[in-house]
Amino acid sequence: MTPATSTPATSGTSSAKARSNLAGVVLAAGLGTRLRPLTDLRPKALCPVGGVPLVDLALRRLAPYVGAGAVAVNAHHHAELLVEHVGTRAYVSVEQPRPLGTAGALGHLRHWLAGRDVLLTNADAYLPDGLGELMAGWDGERCRLLVRHLPAEDRGDFQPPGGPVRYVGACLLPWPLVSELSAEPSGLYEVLWRREWDAGRLELVVTAGTAIDCGTPADYLAANLHASGGRSVVGEGAVVEGPLERSVVWDGAYVGPHEHLVEVVRAGTRGQPVTVDCR
Q: What is the pTM of this model?
């Protein structure tokens, strides 16, 4: 049995079933080790893209499809900062003493989900075109993943007939499958998606839109430059006295008059600057 792969229509219309029985989940508990030292200052989900924290962009993606009070965010690294930032906009599921992974996070949320299907998105996925193509026509019965094509020589996450694809951080999961997940450290690929793929039940929606995983400094910079149209991004309260080229300056950071930043991220404070070269 061949798993379904589709290139969706341009319409963002989702099914009535999905809208009426859907919970949104933002995965935001990752350690962000590849973005250190930026993630020593704040969780990856609070790193800004185009001046907006990644978690806020994720909440905006879910908003057209998930009702008020039906969104959860998981947290682990610098959890207190994420709890404070999200406030009452979503239920925050704190995972301690260790993060639970993509599957364990949903197992931990099982009672909160209370029988609802799940629209899940990674906080560190930059998806400026939204989730309309993922939502369009979903029947609520199979796992559906948003993916993009890769070069033929790339192994990818899955190998459908059209060539290798990679998951880009958004999916739909029916409740009967979510209800099987336990609150133990585990990943969706290992405990669910691989099984569904082998059984021919995993649905892949191929996107032609922009999809950037903000896990590395180079990709994080790329997402910012896409959001700004190629211009340097300067956060609120930052002081910039030297020239910038294709760079990001976080809120409250400082660039001195004798500095010339090219493709870097500047964070921290005037007294304790943090600079990450993205080249």
A: 0.91
